[in-house]
Design brief:
Blueprint (H helix, E strand, L loop, with lengths): L2 E2 L8 E2 L7 E2 L20 E5 L3 E4 L4 E11 L4 E10 L3 E9 L6 E4 L2 H4 L3 E6 L3 E2 L3 E2 L4 E5 L4 E9 L6 E4 L1 E7 L7 E9 L4 E2 L2 E10 L4 E9 L4 E10 L2 E9 L11 E2 L6 E3 L4 E10 L5 E2 L6 E7 L7 E4 L2 E4 L1
Parallel strand pairs: 13-17, 17-28
Antiparallel strand pairs: 1-2, 3-5, 4-16, 5-15, 6-9, 6-14, 7-11, 7-12, 7-13, 7-16, 8-10, 8-14, 17-27, 18-26, 19-25, 20-23, 20-24, 20-27, 21-22, 21-25, 28-29
Length: about 325
């Protein structure tokens, strides 16, 4: 199963896209890239990943950067803010409990299988400061190496020679009351959309209760329409019924609930996602270049962690 992350406002998937773009060793900021100042000492940290090169027209490139940051204490993350240059689709913080040498390369599925999601942001330019509501915060254990997944998606007809990403992470206030936040995602990493107008369906049966406070759909440039239904017995609650616009890949429609009054998925309920496409590429669209995803942020008092349903196959991410 490929991995997926929360707090990515574009709901950008953490599948590894195809491509042959190159990467650099760590270096200074590329010209014109101006991320904001780093958090104050002890309040969080900033990661600036090396530039990457040759983002071809129509290209989708996902990079993994193993940083030289290894946490010397447990942390609870409350907020994040990202910056990306042209073609930026998302920048996500993961953690790895088996630290590796600092490096940047195109992600592989085996790489992603070793990571756990923490936080992130999405889209070229500067994202808003994303702060979890109420007492919610994301946990990262002591000894974890920070790993960044940064994705560049060039929907234009012109190659982009260079791109770069940065992310600020802010801790919860010391001594504050904290409730764990996690993630829930429904997707099909084996999806393949033939040329022309076609649809795919993702159906999952809920295996354990989930309390969700934040929900979004996600598709890419060839998406036409997405519907998401929560089916509980004879009752169907249509959560989303959206004519897709490519800009939604970065700023999707969203549903929010107060974490104290979450939307609940109970055991035996079903989630059904239908995605309609107009594939004009002449080749099948696979996961990464295109997507059909329903993502939710969860209130997680039992520390279940991040859970994905990949075409009714469940597992952690």
């Amino acid at each position: 199963m490929q991995r997926f992350g929360w707090l990515v406002l574009a709901a950008a998937a953490v599948a590894c896209g195809s491509g042959s773009g190159g990467s650099s060793a760590p270096s200074d900021l590329m010209p014109g890239f101006t991320p904001g100042p780093a958090p104050a000492a002890g309040a969080g940290f900033q990661i600036i990943v090396p530039p990457v090169y040759d983002i071809e027209a129509g290209g989708s490139y996902e990079y993994c950067t193993w940083t030289n940051v290894t946490l010397d204490h447990d942390v609870w993350i409350k907020s994040s803010q990202g910056w990306q240059t042209e073609t930026g689709h998302h920048v996500i913080i993961f953690y790895n409990t088996n630290p590796q040498p600092a490096q940047t390369r195109i992600c592989s599925d085996s790489d992603m299988a070793n990571f756990r999601f923490a936080t992130g942001a999405a889209g070229e330019g500067a994202s808003e400061l994303n702060t979890l509501p109420g007492n919610l915060a994301v946990f990262i254990p002591k000894g974890s190496q920070i790993v960044v997944n940064h994705h560049y998606l060039n929907a234009s007809t012109t190659s982009v020679p260079e791109a770069q990403s940065a992310l600020n992470v802010l801790y919860a206030d010391p001594g504050s009351t904290i409730e764990r936040a996690s993630s829930l995602v429904f997707l099909d990493t084996a999806m393949s959309v033939p040329p022309g107008q076609n649809s795919i369906n993702v159906t999952c049966t809920i295996k354990q209760p989930f309390e969700t406070w934040y929900m979004i759909p996600h598709m890419h440039n060839w998406g036409q329409h997405i519907t998401i239904d929560h089916i509980a017995g004879s009752k169907t609650d249509r959560l989303f019924d959206v004519d897709w616009d490519p800009s939604y890949a970065f700023h999707p429609p969203e549903l929010k609930n107060d974490p104290t009054s979450p939307h609940v998925f109970n055991v035996g309920d079903q989630v059904h996602v239908r995605c309609d496409y107009n594939n004009t590429t002449g080749s099948p669209l696979t996961f990464g270049k295109e997507m059909c995803v329903f993502f939710a942020g969860t209130v997680d008092p039992k520390s279940v962690g991040n859970i994905a349903c990949d075409s009714d196959t469940w597992g952690p991410f």
